[in-house]
Amino acid sequence: MSKKYFGTDGFRGEAGVTITAEHAYKVGRVLGWYYSSTKNGKSRAVIGKDTRLSSYMLEYALAVGLTSSGCDAYILHVTTTPSVSYITRCDGFDCGVMVSASHNPYYDNGIKLLNDRGEKMDDEVIELVERYLDGDFTPFGGKDIPYARGGDIGRTVDYISGRNRYIGHLISLSTCSYKGLRVGLDAANGSAWQIARSVFDTLGAKTYVIGEAPDGTNVNDGVGSTKIDALRRLVTENSLDIGFAFDGDADRCIAVDENGGVVTGDEILYLSADYLKNRGELAGNKVVCTAMSNGGLKNSLAKLGVDCVVCGVGDKAVCDAMTASGAALGGERSGHVVFSKYETTGDGLVTAIMVMESVVERKTTLSKLLRGYKALPQVACDVPVTDKRAAMVGVNELAVKLEGKLKLRIIARASGTESLIRLMAEGESEENCALACKILAGKIIENCD
């Protein structure tokens, strides 16, 4: 199904323009109708949100839509996307909804839909939502969705206890004490701003936290997993042992070692595969990564006796490939990492805990855990555009020519979450990688003129 509203990570765009309160209300209407009509008794949905100013508007609109269609709406308030997934699955909800635009700037927002397993929503439900948003009532008997009446009207329930239970779940994952370790945390002024400190303090670490003062307009502003220099400064200036940066909804994690070196999702996959393999917990000795992962990951994993299954971009593609291959570990360079033993989606806090377990159990440093990892030269850049389709005209053809001429692996693709064209070039020469990205970026800009 070709989706008009929902991309690789939900319905996302500028709040009040591309995504409005009316959109959120209609999404709630469809979900409430769908789940109430497919079960005996009232359906139940759980809603979380990040710290954006517009998240409150969308949260309330969703709750109105859900309850008016006969679904009870349980409100987690400010929390992480992975916590909504966890609570949806463990507390028997029919679906979960997260209001967040992840790593995007504050003026954007989004709606992420999860099924009862805490996974990305099934395509058949997304199609119903899309058609209703476009005013197509055909799937609903040719008329608008009826409003619930009398005792069938849904209610809203304050469910902050669910978020607290998720925090307890995170703490329970650790088998080690972090006492004596100095840990930097960058909460991106987003969903993790309270949770991250609570978890690491409880586990015994001495925490140093930035990005923990959300005001509705500063999420991801100079901090977070896509602005890693803030955490690097925190770690190096305070001589910390390790640091972790999350994005707006905390489903990503990028680490920083004791020297200030950046540890991306690729390196985290490598050290996690090594850790799980030594514990006999790496199913099939395989890891799932995406086409955007550094080629050095596959080579480095091979030296550990671990196979690499390559899939398309996006955490849904990763999860689908993990299910198909039976892998227990998968992820993306961006920091979405999935440990299937614990979660059905990427969870930045789970990732941070698993990295800490590796460091503590082996009584070493993060940089030493990565001595066997060797990345290939790689350059990536994003090109802002207004029309992604027009911007890509002739770009892939040019990329193929540059691959042969410069002996590179090149990926040029439209972002599924932002108005960007993402470019990546990889090979033996970093100079050639930079040249290829410059040429392709020029072509994209030319297309947009």
Give a description of the structure.
The chain has about 450 residues and is α/β, with parallel strands linked by helices. Helices cover about 40% and strands about 20% of the residues. It is built from 15 helices and 19 strands. The protein has helices spanning about 20-35, 55-70, 80-90, 125-135, 160-175, 195-200, 230-235, 265-280, 295-305, 315-325, 350-360, 365-370, 390, 395-405, 430-449, and strands spanning about 5, 10-15, 45-50, 70-80, 95-100, 110-115, 155-160, 180-185, 205-210, 240-245, 255, 260-265, 285-290, 305-310, 330, 335-340, 380-385, 410-415, 420-425. Strands 1-2-6-5-3-4-7 form a 7-stranded mixed β-sheet, with helices on both faces. It has a 5-stranded mixed β-sheet with strand order 9-8-10-11-12, sandwiched between helices. Strands 17-19-18 form a 3-stranded antiparallel β-sheet. A hairpin with a 5-residue loop joins strand 15 (about 330) and strand 16 (about 335-340). Helix 3 (about 80-90) crosses helix 5. It starts with 5 loop residues before the first strand and ends with a helix. The mean pLDDT is about 95.
Outline of the structure:
The chain is α/β, with parallel strands linked by helices. It has helices at residues 21-37, 53-68, 81-90, 123-133, 160-173, 195-202, 229-237, 265-278, 295-303, 315-325, 348-361, 366-369, 388-391, 395-406, 430-448; strands at 6-7, 10-14, 43-49, 71-78, 95-99, 108-114, 156-158, 182-186, 206-210, 242-246, 253-256, 262-263, 286-290, 307-311, 329-331, 337-339, 378-384, 408-414, 420-427.
